[in-house]
Amino acid sequence: MTTMTTEKPREEHAFEADVSRLLHMMVHSVYSDRDVFLRELISNAADACEKLRYEAISRPDLAPDGVKGRILVTLDDARNELTVEDNGIGMSRAELIDALGTIAKSGTRAFMDRVEAAKGDGRAELIGQFGIGFYSAFMVADRVDVTSRAAGQSEAWTWSSDGKGTFSVEPAAADEAPVTGTRIRLHLMEDAKTYTSRWSIERIIREQSGHVPVPIELKEKPDAEAAEVTDGAALWAKPKNEISDDDYKDFYRSVSGQFDEPLLNVHFRAEGMHEYTALAFVPSTQPFDLFDPERHGRMKLYARRVFITDEADLLPRYLRFVRGIVDTSDLPLNISREMIQQSPVFSAIRKGVTGRILSAIERLGETDSDAYAKLWGQFGSVIKEGIYEDYERRAQLLKLSRFASTAALEGGRTLSDYVADIKDGQSEVFYITGTSIEQLKASPHLEGFKAKGIEVLLLTDAVDSFWTTNTRDFEGKAFKSVTQGLADLDKVADAQVPDGEKPTTSSEVEGFIAYLTETLKDHVESVRASSRLTDSAVCLVASDQGPDRQLEKLLQGSGRLKATSKPVLEINPSHALITRLAGLDDGDLRSDAAWLLLDEAMVLDGEKPVNPRAFADRLGRLIDRVLAV
């Protein structure tokens, strides 16, 4: 051990503003069940023990006696106190200030950063072990004292705070601190006295922390004998027939930090070229960070039951909602995160785990339609990111996907269902993208398809505009947007409109189309008669070669596209309004009508008129003209 050189006085510090806000949220809104504080403290303690075990591989002097990790919970009813103590890696003075005085960063992230930074000389600096969950202690305590001694050091420090804006740090007497590790003493609030009850605490430990990989002991009072509550056996290492559903649920909650029940668990051991065990869960509710821009997964990686990191990308980003662990004996312990990601062993494990999880999701869809509908409702928009990103598994992901369509507004249609019901002569899977089912149902682009009984997929997730552009086909049927290019519906068998009754375009309407083309040339690529409209007079479509209209809007809204391309204006040649306008002789009225038709099409497409002021003026002139008759 290093020796203490100078005695440092008690120091007062102010919490960062973010911590003060976090403490307020933690106490008043983050958790509705105050019992969670104990799970959070035990989880931190277990991480500290695991990290010391990792460090001791390269520095045996940190644990000279090969001491195994241990967590001790002590109750003191007389003083209304609860203590959680571990013999893990501990913290120095600077680490106490950094970990508990600023907005809590991920302990594991900092740990791996230090390991990588120190790999040149074979040493890893010690870190604080706390995450945001530490602050949940203030839900039940009006003061928290944290006494810690970093492994390999003689100095011990005490951090103390009432959670109301400041904290103090001062040296701890040698006989008041753990030999190595951290002791957290909670001075409980009056309404939290139940947390000094052995029965209550033992129940919470078994329910919420029963499967942490470090033994947990409980002392009913300070001078009592400690009794083991959990044995620290890794759940994933047990045979599946020895694990109950409740065991799985408890472990899921401890590893995910959520309180729902998993929709699906995937537990298997792979043997052969690479050996590893995986235990993964699909939640029944969306994790709070599901749409985090970084979109990292939350699977934990162990090597021979030693925790390595929870930042290795064990699953592709479109499965980032999955929670769980992978434990392998094929990766060395002293390996950095970058080296892990580049390892061919890691790549093989990643591929194997991804395949098993997708297969399990596929089986759920075949055996339990209700559970699958819930899974898809929560995570379908994320899974579809894989159709865009993961070419290798695109076919499998397309089969997993479920859609709403004009044949099933509530959703649940598979592409296999669509292809099975496809019309004679139909060579495409038709779809339309937008922001809501109601908006899409009202789209004029669907009219001709509905008239012919052609099913159209109704796609409302932003990612739909992307995967449909780089996915060529499904079972030989190309994907085709009904808002893009010509709608050649004549080749599709039609039981409702007999052959020979296709609407024709009169010469008068042809002349009106030519007039519209010239008048609106600065705003539309072209004007043409439509085969997709039956009830509406006009609509806008994307050109045959350009991107889909909805995709253009998304790209422009995100700053990735400066301006959208000119659309094509389609008119319904048999619509009464069009035929009457085509016969107009009044030049001014004809001009106003041309612009109003474009504005109408813009509004139907979810956009503002080209020029709102000019639109209002034209509409006013038209109303005056009608009233004057």
Description:
- Helix content is 36%, strand content 19%.
- The protein is α+β, with helices and mostly antiparallel strands.
- The N and C termini lie far apart (102 Å).
- The chain folds into 4 domains: 11-233, Heat Shock Protein 90; 240-372, Ribosomal Protein S5, domain 2 (2-Layer Sandwich); 380-481, 3-Layer(aba) Sandwich (Rossmann fold), CATH 3.40.50.11260; 507-628, Heat shock protein 90, C-terminal domain (Four Helix Bundle (Hemerythrin (Met), subunit A)), CATH 1.20.120.
- The chain contains 20 helices and 23 strands.
- Strands 1-6-5-4-7-3-2-8-9 form a 9-stranded mixed β-sheet. Strands 16-15-18-17-20-19 form a 6-stranded mixed β-sheet. Strands 10-11-14-12-13 form a 5-stranded mixed β-sheet, with helices on both faces.
Report the C-alpha radius of gyration, rounded: 33 Å
Major sheet summary line? 9 strands, mixed
Second CATH tier, the architecture of the largest domain? 2-Layer Sandwich
CATH class membership of the largest domain: Alpha Beta
In quaternary terms, these chains amount to single chain
Structural class: alpha+beta
Cα distance, first to last residue? Answer: 102 Å
Q: Estimate the mean pLDDT confidence.
A: 85
**Approximate strand percentage:** 15-25%
The number of helical segments is 20
Strand segment tally: 23
The H-level CATH homologous superfamily of the largest domain, spelled out, is Histidine kinase-like ATPase, C-terminal domain
Helix content: 25-40%
Low-confidence stretches: 1-6, 103-116, 118-129
Number of domains: 4
CATH topology of the largest domain: Heat Shock Protein 90
Give me the side-by-side strand order of the main sheet.
1-6-5-4-7-3-2-8-9
Q: Which shape, going by the Cα principal axes?
A: elongated
